[in-house]
Design goal:
mainly beta; elongated; single chain
Length: about 625
């Protein structure tokens, strides 16, 4: 029992009490503008100190300010159902811990706390993902009419100015668990300028932003970040989440999220309990810097830096009919693993004028209908985006944006497909990878590269496109085992025709050096088209092998790394078309099912060598303007 709350609000219902405190808090904020501090943020009853003994429960009915708090092991601070409890000490959210590793609620950890302590009792709101409901706590909640003080732990907002339309210069610091900074929902419109967020300690679920610095969610919600700095460290302690129809714009900002320490008893899981990246992607890590989720969500980052330690920097997950855009941004993994961007679901992801510095993949395409575009941030393109996405960029802002090309580099692979999707590369984009540039794991990949403005592809291991069997074992405890038998021909699959599920790659006005290998065992062709281009390498059906015969979670870094042995086509047709004066320099034996050349295109061997061709074991003279179909073998001597 809290003596002061009982006296101050005698005879008022609990919900009315908290709403009354919220109203008083709003008055204290002097909205629409007020400089915030931990001591002025919310009206609170005052007590000198509270001590909670072992096994005891101390009930709080309203926000309370203290100078000392002691909670013995087994002691509990409790609030009524439908309310949440947040503690700040000298303006820092602290002490909150999840009641168990995969619990959704928090409690105040046992210990002794001293300073300007505020125990905020706020109306609870919830978010649901994968049939799990999470109570969300945050420093500032904004809705249609602006700041909702009754849902906010405002003592965690220090400095700056807060209005119903936005906040400038505020700071939110948290070392508790599962606490958000700013949460905008319910169709609200809110702008954060020059704000600072520094979170340590673990979050709970980044699919709904539980533990994230800034969250915007809901149809009609608009959230703008300008000059914001986010520095987080913790498991699923993300920087920014946009979800379920929110329109997010982030400008001139920096987001950096580092891995945390997993609970000792955590067992990797999926869905609402996914605290680590699935190892079957070939990477590790436990925090994503940003995430776009849900249906009809848009997230646009301009002139900003987005960094994760591993796992992922710019993530789009579990979405439909959404658009993710980065213009003139740095997108990076600070550690040795991770992806720059992720595209999952029916999303258009545009990377324009950006620098990608990826640990393992520049991009992962994770589901069908995802489209990714690497290109330049031309003035025409950015102006069109400003109109299409309603970014609100002024004429001065548009004029000040430099025109840049995308530079995507990876210490591992380039783009990896574990779901069907499309990649477009144009402008002056450069994709530079240590290993394979395009890694297709048994799904339909559609690739177009337009080099007419200087786009270039470089694969450090000499493989530009690898089509292979999936090495994803499909479950957390699964093991991938390399097939040892030879594939059996499927007479019902035509290796000379293009099918909907086949992989296609088209290259225009580009010079390429490297191999293209189709190592699928079961019914997938690779169709390659070169227009006004040159390619030097092996284009062939193959058999691929990992360095190890089986891959479990302990060998996750082996995923995707294969070597190829060229073999005649079985169920893995290779269809090559040369047009517009293209030239293929064959550097080694290549097995095809279709070869088509227009009158201006050529197939040759390196200087000092010759190339010969057989079709169905019959020698055939290679001649421009011909189309050849069957079991084609090109041999270099």
């Amino acid at each position: 029992m809290c003596p002061t709350e009982e006296n101050d609000l005698r005879g008022v219902t609990m919900r009315a009490r908290v709403r009354a405190l919220g109203a008083v808090g709003a008055a204290a904020l002097a909205l629409p503008a007020m400089t915030l501090s931990a001591t002025s943020a919310r009206a609170a009853s005052r007590a000198r100190g509270i001590s909670v003994g072992a096994g005891k429960t101390y009930g709080l009915r309203a926000t309370t300010r203290l100078t000392a708090l002691s909670i013995a092991k087994g002691g509990t601070l409790a609030v009524p159902d439908g309310y949440s409890l947040t503690m700040t000490v000298d303006g820092v959210e602290t002490g909150s811990m999840l009641t168990a590793t995969l619990a959704t609620s928090t409690t105040i950890a046992p210990g002794t706390y001293r300073g300007d302590i505020v125990l905020t009792v706020a109306e609870q709101h919830t978010a649901t993902f994968a049939n799990v409901t999470f109570p969300i706590r945050q420093a500032l909640y904004a809705g249609t009419e602006g700041v909702v003080a009754a849902r906010s732990a405002l003592p965690a907002v220090t400095g700056g100015r807060v209005t119903d339309a936005g906040a400038r210069g505020i700071r939110v610091v948290s070392d508790g668990e599962a606490f958000d900074g700013v949460y905008v929902a319910d169709g609200g419109t809110y702008t954060l300028r020059d704000a600072r967020f520094a979170f340590t300690g673990n979050g709970r679920c980044d699919f709904i932003g539980d533990g994230t610095a800034v969250v915007g969610t809901g149809a009609g919600t608009t959230l703008v970040l300008d000059g914001v700095r986010i520095a987080n460290k913790g498991v699923v302690r993300g920087g920014v989440v946009a979800a379920d129809g929110c329109a997010l714009v982030v400008k001139n900002s920096r987001i950096r999220c580092l891995n945390g320490t997993l609970p000792a008893d955590y067992v990797p899981a999926g869905g609402a309990n996914m605290l680590v990246v699935p190892w079957r992607l070939g990477i590790s890590g436990n925090v994503r810097a940003t995430n776009l989720l849900g249906t009809n969500t848009t997230a646009t980052y301009i002139g900003s830096s987005i960094e994760s330690e591993t796992w992922g920097a710019f993530s789009v997950d579990s979405t439909a009919d959404s658009r993710a855009t980065a213009v003139n941004c740095r997108i990076a993994n600070l550690g040795d693993e991770g992806y720059g961007t992720f595209a999952d679901g029916n999303v258009l992801e545009r990377i324009l004028g950006c620098e990608i510095d990826a640990g393992t993949y520049t991009t992962i395409i994770g589901a069908s209908d995802a489209t990714v575009h690497y290109g330049d941030s031309t003035r025409q393109t950015v102006a069109a985006l400003n109109s299409e996405l309603g970014l609100g960029l002024s004429a001065a802002e548009l004029a000040a944006l430099p025109v840049r090309a995308t530079r995507a580099s990876s210490r591992g692979f380039g783009v990896m497909w574990h779901g069907a999707g499309t990649l477009h590369i144009d402008g002056s984009t450069v994709l530079d990878t240590r290993h394979t540039a395009f890694l297709d794991k048994a799904v339909r990949a559609t690739i177009t590269v337009d080099g007419s403005q200087g786009a270039r592809i470089h694969a450090g291991n000499g493989v530009i496109l690898q089509v292979m069997e999936t090495d994803n074992p499909g479950s957390i405890n699964g093991v991938y085992t390399e097939p040892t038998d030879d594939p059996v021909r499927d007479d019902g699959f035509d290796v000379t025709q293009l099918h909907d599920a086949d992989t296609t790659a088209s290259f225009t006005a580009v010079s390429l050096r490297g191999d293209f290998c189709n190592a699928r065992r079961n019914g997938q062709n690779m169709a390659l088209t070169f227009d006004a281009s040159t390619v030097e390498g092996v284009l062939s059906a193959s058999v691929s092998r990992h360095a190890v015969d089986s891959i479990s979670s302990a060998e996750y870094t082996e995923l995707g790394h294969v070597t190829n042995t060229v073999r005649p086509v079985v169920n893995n047709g290779v269809l090559v078309t040369l047009t517009g004066g293209s030239a293929w320099t064959v550097t080694g034996t290549s097995y095809l099912s279709v070869l088509s050349l227009d009158a201006d295109s050529t197939v040759t061997a390196p200087a000092g060598r010759t190339v010969t061709m057989t079709v169905d074991d019959e020698p055939i003279d290679l001649a421009p303007g011909g189309t050849y179909t069957g079991a084609i073998t090109l041999t270099v001597r």
